[in-house]
Amino acid sequence: EIHRLHHAAHDACFIANSVRSDVHCEPVIDPA
Fold first, then answer.
1. What is the pLDDT of residues 11-25, one digit of tens each?
2. How far apart are CA 21 and CA 1, in angstroms?
């Protein structure tokens, strides 16, 4: 679920959709 939400956030992100190169990031999930 968390990974799906992370992917959905990138799909909706204006900056992520404006960059013309590939951007890869790994989420850090802190169950604090």
1. 888 887 787 888 787
2. 26
